[in-house]
Amino acid sequence: MRRILIVTGEASGDLHGANLARALKALDPHVSLAGIGGAAMQAAGVQLVRDLGELDIIGMVGPAALVSVVRRFRSMRRLFRSERWDAVVFIDHPGLNLRYAYFAKAAGLRVIYYIAPQIWAWRPGRIHWIKRRVDHVIVILPFEKAIYDRAGIPCTFVGHPLLDAVAPQYDGIGLRKGWGLDAAGPVVALLPGSRSTEVKALLPILLGAAERLARRDRKTQFLLAQASTIQDNLLESLLRESPVPVTVVKEQAGEVMAASDLVLVASGTATLQAAVVGTPMVLLYRTTWFTYWLAWLLIRVKWIGLVNLVADRTVVTELIQSDATAQRLYEEAVRMLDNPAVYEDMKRSLRQVKAALGGPGASTRAAEVVLAACRT
Fold first, then answer.
1. What is the DSSP string of 364-376?
2. Would the pTM of this model clear 0.85, i.e. be above it?
3. Which candidate, 286, 287, 275, 295, places its Cα nearest to that of 348?
4. Mean pLDDT computed over 4-9
5. 301-324, pLDDT tens digit by residue?
6. Average pLDDT of the segment spanning 16-35
7. Where are the domains of the chain?
8. Which of 41, 177, 212, 374 has its CB surrounded by the most CB atoms within 10 Å?
9. What is the architecture of the domain spanning 172-356?
10. Helix or strand holding residue 310 (H, E)
């Protein structure tokens, strides 16, 4: 019986770990799965040896945080040495997982990394750590494999898990009616992000653009996709001053995108989700000037939007920092909505991006790699 340890460090990794666990169980019903994760992994049949909350040091400062980190490292080292695991699978969260991988490798374990660190964006030197600490890398973006191939690191591209999370098709008209919208009027989706700092910075800009769009065409309707990580009171306080009616939909980003003619979206995975759904978009992002300056020094990519990175060209307009204003967002939205040729060209490009992400079944293909590694 194969014994596999799955290690993640945050909520998104918990979901990917749960999907991987279900795929492993489907391929090998006798596999024994243990892990560090949350409720999703536990529900998928993973026996938790640590809960995500037990390892959280958010809010700690100074010596307390340092002591907690040292204890965490010692605990992980004991875990790797305590039992004979056939493989350890680390998921995302490279800040800690690359360090844990050092302890796992030192314990003589087979190490697999799923959803690899974004070395193509920043800190490319980490690839030398990966080469020493990881036996096989599983990537979800098509351009990543060539990077690891050049470094001589065994790597498999399995496709993006989003293709399993997004429905093959949606009833956009039915969704509009279900939310009380006019099926014929233009609908614009607002996606301000999944972190409270993003929402505080970006939602006022989105609402400013929405107000301008509503003045231009009173029939324009607005949907807001609320992430599970965003509290109701935060949105309510920001929406209270808006003169534009906005329908808030919780935890249904794909449906919101499918029901909309245009998506105004914060940079992140949501841009890829919109590409998979097939709805044209405009991307925006704004952060503190210090964070922006630091990113400008460290990040080594032409674009921040994943759609553009996958396409290796500008498909989606990126309004970043000083360009991320309500007026610029409004102008780009009008350009998309008023120009059928531009609109259809983006839809064609989004179909190409979707095709490049691979087909559904990323978790199953990742599970096949993990099981094959256990047999070597």
1. HHHHHHHHHHHH-
2. no
3. 275
4. 91
5. 677 788 999 998 999 999 998 999
6. 95
7. 3-159+361-375, 172-356
8. 41
9. 3-Layer(aba) Sandwich (3.40)
10. helix 306-311
For residues 166-170, average pLDDT = 87
Which stretches of the chain are DSSP H helices?
Answer: 11-27, 39-43, 62-82, 94-106, 126-133, 144-150, 162-165, 172-178, 196-216, 232-239, 253-258, 269-277, 289-298, 306-311, 326-338, 340-356, 362-375
Task: Quote the tokens at residue 259.
Answer: 């029901």
- pLDDT of 50: 72
Predicted pLDDT of residue 281: 98
286-290, 301-305, 365-369 — most confident range: 365-369
Give phi and psi for 46, each to the nearest 5. Answer: -90, 130
List the single range of 49-53, 137-141, 220-224, 370-374 with lowest mean pLDDT.
49-53
Give residue for tokens 């004979």: 84
What pLDDT is stored for residue 84 in this prediction?
87
Residue pointed to by tokens 């256990």: 374
3-state secondary structure at position 145: helix
CB–CB of 68/60 below 8 Å?
Answer: yes
Q: What is the pLDDT of residue 66?
A: 58
Q: Give me the CATH topology for the region 3-159+361-375.
A: Rossmann fold (3.40.50)
Give the span between the Cα atoms of 34 and 4, in whole angstroms. Answer: 6
Same fold for the domain at 3-159+361-375 and the one at 172-356? yes
Instruction: Please determine, for residue 299, whether its predicted confidence score (pLDDT) is greater than 50.
Output: yes
Please say whether the beta carbons of 181 and 246 come within 8 A. no
Alpha-carbon Rg for the chain, nearest whole angstrom, is: 22
Q: Which of 225, 219, 230, 163 is nearest to 186 (CA)?
A: 219
Q: Are 147 and 127 in contact (CB under 8 A)?
A: yes
Contact predicate 358/142, CB 8 Å = yes
Return d(Cα 57, Cα 263) in angstroms, integer: 35
Residue type, 332: E
Q: What is the mean pLDDT of residues 128-138?
A: 94
